[in-house]
Amino acid sequence: MIPLPLIDGRTLARVITYLNKHTEDDASDEAKRKFDEEFLYGMEVGVLYDAALAANYLDIGGLFHEVCQRIADGMMNKSVEWVRKTFHIESEFTSEEEVQIKKEYAWAWEGVDSNAD
């Protein structure tokens, strides 16, 4: 028996589904890629986060990479506020510091979806 203290039953079931597909002898690389896209598409950030933790803990590199890529794709063009809210990150900066940072690095806010907050 292997203790899995950080992995709940739902997440473990998803991991097993992924592993079953990726161990099928007759599944082509293309079929696996398509499965990965469909499998991860529509998963909420919290579910993806749990899957990333599980894949990392269980050392399942392929799943870890795919989940992290999906999380990164979902963050693209999102505001700092959206990322903080989604991942429960508290700001380390004062309001004045944030204004200064936005001035100095204005290019970093180009193309950001301000409606996603």
CATH superfamily placement of the largest domain: Potassium Channel Kv1.1, Chain A
Q: How many structural domains?
A: 2
CATH-derived topology of the largest domain: Potassium Channel Kv1.1, Chain A
Number of β-strand runs: 0
CATH class placement of the largest domain: Alpha Beta
Kindly estimate the percentage of residues that lie in beta strands according to DSSP.
Answer: under 5%
CATH architecture of the largest domain: 2-Layer Sandwich
What is the rounded Rg?
18 Å
End-to-end C-alpha gap: 44 Å
Instruction: Tally the helices.
Output: 6
Protein name: SKP1-like protein 19
Organism: Sesamum radiatum (Black benniseed)
Pfam family, one: Skp1
GO biological process, one term: ubiquitin-dependent protein catabolic process
Brief sketch in words of this structure:
The chain is an all-alpha fold and 117 residues long. It contains 6 helices and no strands.
